[in-house]
Design brief:
Layout lengths: L1 E2 L2 E7 L2 E6 L17 H14 L24 H9 L16 E2 L6 E2 L4 H13 L3 H16 L7 H11 L14 H5 L2 H8 L5 E8 L2 E8 L1
Parallel strand pairs: 4-5
Antiparallel strand pairs: 1-2, 2-3, 6-7
Helix pairs in contact: 3-4
Length: about 220
Amino acid sequence: MYENGKIYMGLAGDKRVELALNMCNRHGLIAGASGTGKTITMKVMAESFSDAGVPVFLCDVKGDVAGICAPGQSSEGMEKRIDKFGLRERFAYRGYPTTFWDIYQEGGHAVRATVSDMGPELLSRILGLTAVQEGILHIVFRIADDKGLLLIDLKDLRAMLTAANCGVALLATIHAADREELARKPLFAKLLEMQVFRRLVTITVEHGRRVYRTESL
């Protein structure tokens, strides 16, 4: 609860624990075992910041504090807490102005980001891709990065995927002395397993001259 420029956090014994608003521009960590009130503490802080006119951005993956938008309901436990913290005269159940950011752009405030900003890992999760499909997506993003191509939207991504599937040769370079070293690199190990590449060309320098060796994969 926000009062007189301070956030009333709770009690330590019979003493109030308060956080001055002008001290809230520092990083903080709420730590505790399960059930000790970490989420409630964060919720109270968000409500207090709202009362003070300070906007709050919450990453609430599980929806633990989504109910902040609606007034709470009275219960026996809640009434005891109101009395315990001495809030009987000034507490009221209320909702707080809330905007839900929606990456799917279906029911909330649309989150707008380029495909390049999202990256292959996040995009693969959103689209529910298989491991093979995700591997192909990694290749497409790698090519786009190497060529300096910004993928703005799904149209750009489709164009890249079309190019990758219409017979265009895929060439990639990486620091590796041989196939064994290449297999130790996480991304390329996956691509080797998927048999994306058909031939490996290694370049070494012997007696001041480049030597090229090729092998089938």
